[in-house]
Amino acid sequence: MSERPEMNDRIQRRAALADPVRIQTAALVIIAFAVVLFLLVQARFMLISLVTAIVLFSLTSDAISFIARQRIGPLHVPNWLASIVAVLAIAAALLTLTSLILSQVNTVLLTTLSYTEQTPEAVAALFAWLGEDAEQAVFNSVSTVDLSGYLRTLAGQAGSMMQASVLVILFMGFLFAERVWFSTKLVNFVGDEVQADRIGRIVGSIIRRVNRYLLVKTLVSVVTGAMVWFVAKLFGLELAAPLGIITFILNYIPNIGSIIATGLVALVTYVQLADASQTLAIFLVVGTIQFVNGNVIDPMLMGRALRLSSFGIIISLAFWGAVWGIPGMFLSVPIMVALMIVCSEIPAVRPVAILLSREGLPEPETRGEVPEEQLKAAE
Fold first, then answer.
1. Is the dihedral of CA 235, 228, 143, 160 positive or negative?
2. Running DSSP on this structure, what letter comes out for residue 296?
3. Which residues contact 95 (CB under 8 A, 6 or more apart)?
4. 259 near 251, Cβ under 8 Å?
């Protein structure tokens, strides 16, 4: 009987010792998170450019390896030549795309500035059915908004895109210069070939899935932007081409981007045409295009391997949008895909991967990579 009180005393002492350890661990985790968050915010310009360079590098790395393996008789393309050509091609495409975006944004801003005086009256007219007092109240509220100031701020932010593009190109040049030695460095860093091979497979899975997401998203965004341009042209809008390009860009922001693009098209239509029926018509047509492309075609092309939790996407979008602004919204899904794959390979944090996946089971690219019992249970 005397052993039981002694055992209880030992249990109580262990519990008393465990509580400070848990508190200390929790405090360290909170401090580490705060430090990382501070660094993410302070070095946002550099980190955004680096992440963008890594994404573009992953898109072209496999293609370069494929080209370097090809032979035409005794001749073949050296790795260094393929890398140089890839960097030059990406640099030209990135600078061209940045110039195009900047020109279209400037066109939209200049045209919108010319309509800023008409905007309060046009918006107030939408509430005319509520009475003259309500219409006047809306007019006074909208008139106090400094639209010109917001637009000039937006133009200043867009102007930094060229600097970011140059930095992305520099980062990509260094990544391509080092790509041949990645495997050797990984083995030497880890010190175990088996573990290095596992990490290489995880990185390869992240690259393939992010590439699939970006390729499908680009295809769907191009089709959506072209359809919006056609509809805007059909209604005689002056900003048909810029609206199509902006729709293409905004579609990379999950969920929210398509809503903003649809609302922007409707607002431009109403400000220019001042016709509620035509505005409603173009709103319904563009909304239907966005719904079909975003909720039917997009998931069908993505496949099961990229079915992410909608709630997880919103959380990721909100977090990276708060930390990195608009660029963070564009990068939120690739970062989420990478996080889900890494967490699915680590037993201690696998619950995080389960929460990020739509069906509750982060699926590998092939069925053979998980036990058959888990696949049957998931299905």
1. negative
2. I
3. 162, 165, 169
4. no
User: Two tokens at 307?
Assistant: 């079915």
Q: Would residue 325 be called left, alpha or beta, if left means φ above 0 and alpha means ψ between -120 and 50 degrees?
A: left
Q: Where are the domains of the chain?
A: 1-32, 46-191, 201-379
pLDDT tens, the chain, 379 aa long: 455 555 556 655 555 555 666 777 777 878 888 888 888 888 888 888 888 888 888 877 766 776 666 666 667 767 777 777 777 888 888 888 777 777 766 666 666 666 666 667 777 776 777 777 777 777 777 667 666 666 666 666 666 777 788 888 888 888 887 777 777 777 887 777 788 888 888 888 888 888 888 888 889 899 999 999 999 888 888 778 888 888 888 888 887 888 888 888 887 887 777 777 888 889 899 999 988 888 778 777 776 656 677 788 888 888 888 888 888 888 888 888 888 888 887 777 788 888 887 766 655 544 434 444 443 443 3
